[in-house]
Recover the amino acids of this structure.
């Protein structure tokens, strides 16, 4: 149950990144790309930091990945 908090935190962080990118008048594809880049940045940071702290940051990036996958699926099905 304790693992859900960092995953949810990563999900919420990426939601905030997505909302900010939409407020800045980005289109859906560009907002998706910004969220994906944020996920990659956090994932690479977790590998650079390493140790137990890096593992925690990696779990946060897992939540970010879940959001990116969800947005990718919605973008695939709802765009023409």
């Amino acid at each position: 149950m304790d693992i859900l908090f960092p995953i949810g935190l990563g999900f919420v962080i990426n939601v905030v990144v997505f909302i900010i990118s939409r407020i800045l008048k980005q289109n859906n594809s560009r907002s998706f790309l910004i969220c994906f880049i944020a996920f990659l940045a956090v994932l690479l940071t977790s590998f650079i930091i390493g140790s137990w702290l890096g593992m925690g940051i990696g779990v946060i990036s897992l939540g970010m990945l879940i959001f990116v996958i969800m947005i990718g699926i919605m973008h695939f099905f709802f765009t023409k």
